[in-house]
Amino acid sequence: MRGVCAGMAASAALALVPSLRIAARDPRSESEALAGMAAWAGQFTPRVAIEPPATLLLEISGSLKLFRGLEALAGALRWGAAEMGYGTLIAAAPTPRAASWLAAAGHEKLVTDPAQIEAALAALPVSVLVCAKDELETLEGIGVATLGELRTLPRDGVARRFRRTLLDDLDRALGLVPDPRAFYAPPERFRAAIELPAEVSEAEALLFAARRLVVQLAGFLAARGSGVQRFALALAHRDREATRVEIGLSAAARDAERFTMLLRERLSALQLREPVRAVALEADDVTSLPGEEPELVFEKGRPPGQWQHLVERLRARLGAGAVHGVAVRAEHRPERACVLADPGAEQMHAYFGERPFWLLRHPKRLQEIGGVPHHEGPLELLAGPERIESGWWDGDDASRDYFVARASSEALVWIYRDRRGDGGWHLHGVFA
Prior knowledge:
single chain, alpha+beta, Dna Ligase, domain 1, 3 domains, 5-stranded antiparallel β-sheet, about 30% helix
């Protein structure tokens, strides 16, 4: 961009772009980022090895059929890395060292035939070898610039003049000797962070950086065959404690698009107290992802789980305490039989008789004329009585006879006669 390219001296880059911002490399952050990429890459194969400072090695022979071939798999890796903000050089070879050297040299080749390894490596510069600077200078001094030229030298002479490991590396790359690797073991919990290039004052502008972390989280969960029901975005400030944005789901999931949508809803309503310098994504409660739930009757013909997505969006926008479900509990007193619960919570299977959909917060006293209860006219008793006597143990005991009645407007109501005191009639619920 504007003449600046990789490998250029800082002074030359500043001469081209005086306003260029130069940041020192942070080896620790780079190592953490590479480990995060390794955890994400585990969704493609469980055999991922880290080769510092910037290389991941994936053993993919067992994954090719699942991902429909090498080209498709390489495309998926390239796309996912770009979603997280990383550029990639992808190479494939029958040996890990050959693949690593091809990528290090910038050769994006997909070599599948072991017989082609030597030809693919011959044109690579000797700089891909992990050796001392003086050894590279010696090779250049004798006119050896490529691995192919190095291979033409007598092995005994090379072994005497250079370290034995140089020939061993060549043999490992060619598949002549084994090249075992220690595979990366992902952590039990997920945490990843990004330091922003400049402080951000608007919460919605944080979504771009958060999206990179969400993609990494989704890959981490896919690699483990797991999901999360809640995660948190921590926003770091200069002089204040970090702001935590908690996200809850109705059921465990690992869908990056779903996570991003919920974050967008929360960030759109968030007022930042101070500009943000870095963002981190944390997920502690990683659980095995259950199978797909059966469709509800009213969801037939629609994509399954849409009601769950609606609940999650409402909670993200209005707050977790603003959206609830209703659950039944073992209590005969109608006003105490239902409690607030998480949407989709497991229900107790209980049957207490006919119950109205709407229940009054407080029963309404009804007028009685000629022994007949009245509500917008006389009520006709259709069913009952259902006697409820309960609550003597908590001081709020009830003794009532409930009836289903029809009003003159044809509405069905739920009324009861109090068996204590004056024995009056009360309206407690409406069926329709």
